[in-house]
Amino acid sequence: MRRLSLTAVTVLHAIASGFEYGFDIIDQTGLPSGSVYPALSRLERDGFLRSAWEDVKTARDEKRPPRRYYRITAHGVRALDEALAGLRGLPAPASGRHGQAKARA
To answer: Confidence class of residue 34 from pLDDT cuts 50, 70 and 90?
Structure first.
């Protein structure tokens, strides 16, 4: 399976955690819309997500534009699990003096 970017993992994790539409995902992740919406498109294209537009009447009743709701697929769950396992397996950063990680200029 192709490796996911950190942005893709963050977006998938937000959706798997119950955040279902664009602005909600942006608020949860802290990522800019210019990162979230392209990631959503790629993740859906690659089969990690499915999406559906809400009923227009619901949006009108709430006086807002319709939302596109995203759901993680079984393929997306597997990819997220693999990505998170890989992140957990990262070694600790090399320590500098005083036990702190060295910052790069």
So the answer is: very high
CA–CA separation, 70 and 83 (whole Å): 19
**Mean pLDDT of all residues in 66-94:** 90
pLDDT value of position 104: 53
How many domains is the chain partitioned into structurally? Answer: 1
Comparing 1-5, 57-61, 74-78, which segment has the lowest mean pLDDT? 1-5
Q: What does the radius of gyration of the chain's CA atoms come to, in whole angstroms?
A: 17
Q: Has residue 70 been placed in a domain?
A: yes
Q: What is the DSSP letter of 101?
A: B
| Closest to 23 measured CA to CA, from 79, 67, 78, 57 | 67
Cα–Cα distance for residue pair 78/49, rounded to 1 Å: 12
Residue 13 structure tokens: 């994790």
